[in-house]
Fold each of these.
Amino acid sequence: MQRAQLAEFLRRRRAAVRPTDVGIAEGPRRRTAGLRREEVAILAGMSVDYVVRLEQGRSSQPSEQLLSALARALRLTDDECDHLFHLAGHRPPPAEGVARMARAGLVRLLDLLGGTPALVVSDLGEALAQNRASILLSGDHTGLSGDHRYPVHRWFVEGKRLAVVPPEERERRSRRLVADLRATAARRSGNPEVRGLVNRLLAASAEFRGFWEDYEVAVRRVDRKTFLHPRVGRMTMDCETLMTPDRNQQLLVLTPVDAESRERLDLLHVIGTEEFPAQGRRG
C-alpha cells in the first residue's frame, strides 16, 4: 500500500469532481474546490473520519469493496480505478469476465435519471450500482457476494420471487432469465465463472434444468415487468436495456406504463425504504 501517493490521489480526485456531477447543488457560499470530505463519505457510505485518515495517509489498508465505493463516489474512469487499487495494494477489478465496477459514465446517468428507477448490472445480472428510485422499487442488491449476487440464482435457488412477482408472470420471467444466461454463456464460452454458475444451478434446481434443456436463447433488451410492492401495491414498468460496446455491462431503466403505476412510484418516493431492510451479505 502506497499511503502517501494514495492520499494525494484521493485529494486531487475529490477536488476535480464538481458537486453538480453527483447531484449536489453548489450554492452561493460554497468555497471548497470539488467535493467536501463529508460529501465523499456520504456518497461512498463510510465515515468522514476514515476519509480524512485516507487523505492524510494514516489509514489501514482499505478493502476492495471500500475502494469500489470510493471509485463510484469520485466518478473515476476505468484507468483511474485501476490506479486506485494499485495504490491501495490490491489487484484491480478484472477487465474481462464479470466486471465488478460500474462504468463512471453509467453511474452519472443514474444520477441524471433522478426519480426514474435505474441500475447498472453486469452481463450476469449482478447489480453494480443503483439509484435511489431503483432501491425503493426492488431493494438494494449492490455489494452482495457469492452466488447470492446473481438474480438467476436468487430466483431459482433462493426463491426470491414469490413476494414480488405475480404468479402469471413467473414462467415468462424464468424463461427470460435462463435464455439470457444461455446467450451470455455462449458469448463467454469457456469462462470458468459462467460455467461454474451454470453447473451449480443445474445441480441445485430441477426447475432451472428444465428450462435450460429447452435451449432458448435471448439477450435481454426490452421487457415489461410487474412488481408487487409490499407498501404501494402493483406497479407495471417497461424496462429498457442499454449495453456498453463490450456488452459486459448494461444500464436498465424502468418507466411506469400507466398513470396508476406512476402515482404509486411517486408515493414510494415519499414513503421511503422501510420495507426493504439491508440484504444479507453472503459468501
Note: Strands lie at 118-122, 127-130, 222-229, 233-243, 249-256.
Amino acid sequence: MEIQTILSEVKYKAVRSSGAGGQNVNKVSSKVVLTFDLANSQGFSEEEKLLLESNLHNRLTSDLVLILNCDEDRSQIKNKEIVTKRFLDIIEKGLYVPKIRKATKIPKSVIRKRIKDKKRASEVKQNRRKPEF
C-alpha cells in the first residue's frame, strides 16, 4: 500500500451542506465529498484490491467506487482533513487480515480438575438434602 499514490488518486468535491446554518448554508460549499476508484487504483496490488473489495463490499458502489461525505464542520478545509483521515482508517481496516486460530488439545490435567470440581459441587448439593430414614 502506497499512501502517497493512493492520496493522489482521491478526488475531492465541495458541495453545499444541508441542514441548519441559515444564510451561510446557501452560499458556502463547506461539505466535502471524497471519491476513490478502487478498480483503477495503482496504489494497491491485485491481492490488496481483492481483499478490500471483499471487506468493504457494503461501502463500495457497483463500479467499485468508495464515496465518503463530511459536513461536520463549517470549514471546508477541516472537512477535507476529517474525510481524508476517515478514508485512510477505512482502507487500513479493510486491509486487516485476522490471525487464524490454531486449535489446541485440552490438557488431561484440566479435564481431571473439571471433573473433580463437578464431583465436589455434586457432593455439596447432596449434603444439602434432608436425610432419608
Note: Residues 3-94 form a domain with the Double Stranded RNA Binding Domain fold (CATH 3.30.160.20).
Amino acid sequence: MTADKSPFMTDPSRSLQGRFLIAMPAMEDRRFAQTVVYMCSHGDDGAMGLIINRRADHITFDELLDQLSIEVAGASPANVPIHVGGPVETGRGFVLHSTEYKGTGATVQVGDGVGLTATTDVLRAIAGGDGPRDTLLVLGYAGWGAGQLEAEIKANGWLVCDAGPELIFVPPPNEKWSRAMATLGVDPALLSAEAGHA
C-alpha cells in the first residue's frame, strides 16, 4: 500500500476539525495512550482537540458547580461524568453537546451534530435539567503548535477518521478507542505487532 493511498494518513491541507484522532498503540506519550481526540479546530496556526475517552476521577459534577459558585435549585443530576480533555489548562472546562442546544451565543458548531460551549451557562442548564440532550463535559484540552500535529501524524502517532456524535456520546469511555479503530477496519493487535515496520 502506498503512502498516498493509506486510509491512516490525512491530506495536510485538509482541516481535521470535526474529525477524530486515534492514538496508535505504540503512542509514547502516556497522556495520550489509547485516546480518541475530537478535533475542535485545526489550521495553519495549530490545532486544538478534546480527549473523549478518559474519565476524571478527581472531581464530581457537584464539586465543579461548587468551585464555580453555580447554585442549583434542588438536587443537580448525580450522574454527570467529567472527563479529562487533555493536559493543557486542566482547570478550563468545555462541553461537547448535541446541536439542539444553542446557549447564549457562545456555542459553536464544530462538526456534524456536535456543538461546543465553554461558558458556565451550559453547566447551569445541565444542572437545572435544561441542558443539551447529549453532553460530554471535559476539563483541559489537547493543543498543538503550527505543524506539530501534522508531524505527529506523519510519524505514525495518530490515525485519522471521520467523527460522529454517536461515538462521542454513546459508548462508555473504555470502548471508544476500539470502536474508533473499528470504523477504519483496523485490528489494534495487528498494529501493535507491526509498529515500526512500515
Note: The domain at 3-52+143-189 is CATH 3.40.1740.10 (VC0467-like).
